[in-house]
Amino acid sequence: MNIIKSKKEVEDKTAKMLFTPESGLAHHCLLISRCLLYPSYVSFNCLLSLYITTFQEEKTPNYVLLKKIFLTPVYAAFFVLFLPIMLVFLPIRCALLYVRRPFMCSQHHTPYTDWQTQVLKNAIDKGFHKFGVATANLCLMPELASKMNHLTNVSYRARKIGEKIITSQFFDREWEKEELAMKMYSSNIEAKSCRENGPIGCAGDNTENQQKPVDQCLEGDVSTDFPVVDVFAIQEAWSSYQNKLLIQQLQKIFPYIVHDAGVHAFRNNAFFLNSGLLIASKHPISAVDFKAYTCFVKHGKLLSNGLLMTQLLLGSSKTNNRNRYIGYVFNTHLQSYQGKDQIIPKQLDEMLDWIKQFKAENTKFGDIELFCLVCGDFNFDNFSPADRESSQHPLFTEFSDFCRVQANLDKSWTGQN
């Protein structure tokens, strides 16, 4: 007797398997070790952070001096107190990171996210939904490294950034952009009519502004709010402790989150920091993988920079339920300050190969691909002579960069020309 399972049951089972740790024991042991190492982590970071001054702190030198005098012995005492625990559990943490899978998946459903999923599904089925993806480098790193970038209070920033993202998903300003677009469109039509029919009803002969292309205003936009998106791709979310604060906020809207991605080994990142890559999605994630770059220099030896790959399950065809609507989102962080070493082009080569491999392994017969996007912090631009090899990479023939026309030429609204 053949038992035919519904498509929803199969999808739920796939998501459940994907968003379950490979080993419950190893997963909980890793959580316990991180909890026991937290006091040492905080005291060490706070102690050394006292001696790194940011631009803001330079304005109050007396206050900084008092902090050093009074807090140095406190943080030093706490660090010495928890040093034995650190010496015991740090090797355990490294061993667990070495054997675990190179990413963690978090799934959290609420009545709102369940309702949101149904609304999105109906909109996609009717062809009304416009997909949105945002990418951001948040610089959520240990306090010590954060102060080197003149940023302080990582925990506060992680929570506030999450709150800002979530608030923007409820109270967006898309209607203002649409209204602006309609005004520019109407203005362009009026200007065109004046040029064709004469200056009737037009003030003067100043057509310079009237001939401004509409797409210059429609394509580019600068806003203080996060856009309403289906997927959020984040870089430099390195601190696993502060990431929890960010994830707690994101899960209110994005039920599927892939985080803590990285391959930990002495030859890769010396067990220091992961990739800092995170992907939060409103749609089920049906496939995930992470690969670390094999080429890196300088501080790249302490990071597990790589490519985080996800396949999103967006729905199914009306005519045939076996035909899935899928989308691909890839998130990456390339080498920064590569110097004379051409590391980025080599990483781009690896990225392109991994993208093709991931799609070949996870695309099933009958799948309908709605989009394939590469997001991230590429650490090079389209103009610098030192980045010429990177800006002319074959990746840009496989994918279209929304901001650029071709190598050494960006779109006018970017302000880079």
Automatic annotation (TrEMBL):
Please state the span of the N-terminal signal peptide per the UniProt entry. none
Q: One GO CC term of this entry?
A: cytoplasm
Q: Identify which top EC class this enzyme belongs to.
A: hydrolase
EC numbers, comma separated: 3.1.4.12
Its keywords, alphabetically, are: Membrane, Transmembrane, Transmembrane helix
Report the superkingdom from the record. Eukaryota
TM ranges = 74-99
Transmembrane helix among the record's keywords?
yes
A GO molecular function term, named singly, is: sphingomyelin phosphodiesterase activity
Family matches, as InterPro entries: Endo/exonu/phosph_ase_sf (IPR036691), Sph/SMPD2-like (IPR038772)
Which named protein is this? sphingomyelin phosphodiesterase
